[in-house]
Design brief:
The complex is a heterodimer of chains A (345) and B (430). Chain A contains two helices and 25 strands. By secondary structure, chain A is mostly beta strands. Chain B is mainly α and 430 residues long. Chain B has a two-stranded antiparallel sheet with strand order 1-2. The chains are: A mainly beta (345), B mainly alpha (430). At the A-B interface, α1 and α2 of A face α12, α16 and α17 of B.
């Protein structure tokens, strides 16, 4: 080995380069985060990371809360539906509360079961316990109780059209269709077998919302795949969109959107749990605007929590049953309110 | 020492027969209380051809590498074979299966009766070991894609200070112990996770892995085979096997004339110089040094075991169940205000929290026991290295170090005694 000054300088330079590269390599190795300290589950940085996820372009928020939140006098409010006249129907605690559009209490209907899902059509209320759908009049008279589902059933959402009631059963991961007048199950394309009307959903946790739009078409959520699907009355998919992610255009984490509703112009309102966001999408799945962001909500508590429900009233307001604060919150468009025809979940 | 090494190798080789049952290798995901996990089934074996091709190519490459290094003494041939291996095993087969990662599968198969291990993995692990026992580390020289990529980019080799070399040379032992520990406890396959070249082979991976790979490439341009010498756990096993090998690469095919031309030829510091002039040193001093090291050995072993046991709780966090348990504990104590998908899914499963904590405690206990064994192993290796450093063996000639030589053939062309060399040149290190 030679030992000239040139070689010495060269070796010093090489040593410096090596030290720098070793430093970068150590940093890179540590950044791989094998123990999940940065967001994968255990670390102190998780909270900080989650706070960062809450940030989005506030210019997208085109709605404001136009009324003070209405306290819901229930321990466990679960479900929300809106009558054509704007009256509000809230289910939970073995009861249904009927409120006027301004939040005034109209009546309370006591039930023998705790409703997990609600929908209304005309002056009829459809309320579901875990495995059974009960049909009620608007003043609480029980009209019918349909045949119970199997013991795996967990009805989490209902949607009623002029002919049918769609029952979303997260336990069996299927959606069933009932003739709303007879309460009998109907099958795809007139089949008479006992198969589910719709199946193949990925349902990691019990949220699988359904809604009907103005055309009588069905909107379903495949929560495990973060997809919203538009289907015809026979359940065939016409459109499917949605992607998982923390970006404002995406659906965060597992099993979102947890709830959907339809605005009068056919656009779709979505609610995401955990990173709580209420957003409006076009039927093609493009984000139109944001109704409320994560900072408008209280972080959901640890462990089991009731996922809020959303609905749209005939005046185009978005109503959110905030199950954490136990209030009903109404959001109205800031600019150019549009008349709607009152479709909800 | 040789007997111990042979014993470890035989144990590792025979343990590969511990084929698993048809149980699931990984626990199913927790998808909520109402999700019924469909019964698992083992798919029919489809007789995929590629694993058989891989094994055949590995065997052929090992034969060829041994022939080129020992019989043909062709540096050019070794280099070309290395490039071919890099292209096939590295870029085409994307670095998997490889013998280095196979250590973990073998360890898991030994310690977890439910683990399944394929014959391909076993052969990938065993074949290079068998060839090393016969011909030295010819696998490292021209068959291993990780070795080949470092060999190809080495443009300006520099020599590291001896003390740094010796200190870094202990890392493979620590890495091997940790890799076996994590695999045996079902925590993680760290060798695969931290393989610096895998992201480059796949042209994909986390940013950290790509940066790490790029750093290793840059370091490899100046420091010969940094991964092989200072990290590779399989290289450590091969170095032990190479010490016992039936035959191995020599610098000269004839008698060494001590011309010193090869002195700087090896960028991997695997050429030992003759020491007849420096020996014998003061015998009394040598004996005292050796005795000192032997007395120090139990302390080193004890300290290593103590350190590993103390770090066991941190190491246990590599296991996802332990992480979940800690997370749930923090949530329950209101230390954090939100949930993770894992903790939420766990809670929705309805499984008692006590069950989770009990499972995590069991894993921690296993990790502590494993850490103790790993610590004893690391300490033993360090102690034996210290004892080896304090002893002197007489060397008459320039010799390729039995353990360190990777049969790359760089030294061949420097030997004037080799009839294949017409123009011997000066050594190559800067």
């Amino acid at each position: 080995m030679t030992d000239t000054p040139d070689h010495k300088i060269k070796n010093i330079l090489i040593t410096l380069v090596l030290l720098g590269v070793v430093g970068v390599a150590i940093w890179a190795a540590l950044s791989i985060d094998p123990m999940g300290d940065r967001g994968a589950g255990t670390g102190r940085d998780h909270d900080e990371s989650f706070q960062k996820l809450k940030k989005f372009d506030l210019a997208l928020v085109k709605w404001s809360e136009n009324l003070p939140a209405i306290p819901v006098e229930m321990d466990s409010p679960v479900a929300l539906a809106i009558f054509d006249n704007g009256n509000i129907c809230i289910g939970g605690d073995k009861a249904i509360a009927i409120l006027a559009p301004d939040g005034r209490k109209i009546r309370r209907i006591d039930l023998k079961f705790s409703p997990q899902a609600l929908t209304v059509s005309g002056d009829t209320i459809f309320a579901a316990a875990r495995d059974t759908v009960t049909v009620l009049t608007a003043d609480g008279q029980e009209k019918a109780q349909w045949a119970p589902l199997n013991n795996k059933a967990d009805i989490v959402s209902l949607a009623a059209s002029q002919e049918y009631v769609y029952v979303s059963d997260a336990g069996n991961r299927v959606i069933m269709r009932y003739d709303r007048k007879t309460g009998k199950r109907t099958y795809k394309n007139g089949r008479t077998d006992s198969g589910a009307f719709m199946s193949g959903f990925n349902v990691p946790s019990p949220h699988m919302d359904v809604a009907i739009n103005q055309e009588g078409e069905l909107l379903t959520v495949d929560p495990g795949r973060s997809k919203v699907q538009l289907r015809d009355t026979e359940g065939d998919v016409l459109k499917s969109w949605g992607a998982a992610g923390s970006g404002i255009t995406e659906f965060y984490g597992c099993c979102n959107p947890a709830a959907i509703a339809v605005l009068g112009d056919g656009s779709i309102v979505t609610y995401e749990k955990t990173l709580q966001r209420v957003k409006v999408y076009s039927l093609q799945g493009e984000l139109i605007n944001v109704v409320a962001g994560p900072n408008d909500f209280t972080d959901q508590p640890v462990g089991k929590f009731i996922v809020p429900d959303i609905a749209v009233d005939p005046t185009g307001r978005v109503l959110v049953l905030d199950t954490t604060r136990k209030t009903l919150r109404t959001f109205k468009r800031k600019i150019a309110p549009q008349p709607t025809t009152g479709a909800s979940r | 020492m040789r007997l111990i090494t042979a014993g470890i190798l035989v144990l590792l080789a025979t343990s590969t027969c511990a084929l698993g049952t048809e149980a699931s290798k990984y626990p199913p995901p927790d998808l909520g209380p109402d999700y019924v996990q469909p019964p698992g089934h083992m798919p029919e074996i489809t007789h995929e051809i590629m694993p058989i091709v891989d094994i055949a190519i590995l065997a052929v490459a090992l034969v060829l590498a041994s022939y080129l290094a020992l019989k043909q003494r062709s540096r050019k041939g070794i280099w070309i074979l290395g490039v071919v291996s890099l292209i096939y095993f590295g870029f085409y087969r994307q670095g998997c299966v490889c013998p280095i990662g196979a250590i973990q599968s073998i360890a898991e198969a030994i310690f977890n009766p439910a683990a399944v291990i394929s014959l391909v993995v076993i052969l990938f692990f065993v074949l290079p070991l068998i060839f090393t026992l016969m011909f030295g580390r010819t696998f490292c020289g021209s068959v291993c894609p990780l070795g080949a990529i470092q060999e190809v980019v080495l443009v300006h080799p520099v020599r590291l200070p001896g003390i740094l070399r010796h200190a870094l040379g202990l890392l493979p032992c620590v890495y091997l112990a940790l890799a076996v520990l994590f695999a045996a406890t079902g925590s993680a396959y760290v060798i695969c996770r931290y393989d610096p070249f895998i992201a480059l082979f796949r042209m994909n991976g986390p940013a950290g892995m790509l940066i790490l790979g790029a750093c290793f490439i840059v370091i490899s341009m100046f420091v010969g085979r940094p991964y092989c010498r200072f990290l590779c756990p399989y290289g450590l096993l091969l170095s032990w096997a190479s010490k016992l090998s039936w035959t191995r690469v020599t610098i000269t095919p004839n008698e060494c004339v001590k011309c010193r031309l090869c002195e700087n030829a090896c960028p991997y510091d695997a050429i030992s110089k003759p020491n007849t002039k420096t020996l014998p040193e003061n015998r009394k001093r040598g004996v005292i040094g050796l005795l000192g090291m032997m007395l120090l050995a139990p302390l080193v072993i004890g300290a290593s075991a103590w350190i590993m046991v103390k770090t066991a709780p941190t190491l246990a966090k590599m296991h996802p169940t332990v992480r979940l348990s800690q997370r749930v504990e923090r949530e329950d104590s209101k230390e954090v205000s939100d949930t993770t998908d894992a903790s939420q899914a766990f809670r929705e499963s309805g499984r008692p929290v006590e069950d989770l904590h009990a499972t995590a405690a069991e894993i921690r206990e296993n990790m502590t026991k494993g850490s103790l064994i790993a610590g004893l192993f690391i300490g033993l290796v360090i102690a034996l290295r210290l004892i080896a450093l304090s002893t002197r063996r007489t060397r008459q000639d320039y010799q390729a170090d039995r353990a360190l030589c990777v049969a790359c053939g760089r030294c061949f062309e420097f030997c004037p005694v080799d009839p294949r060399n017409k123009k011997p040149t000066d050594g190559g290190l800067a």
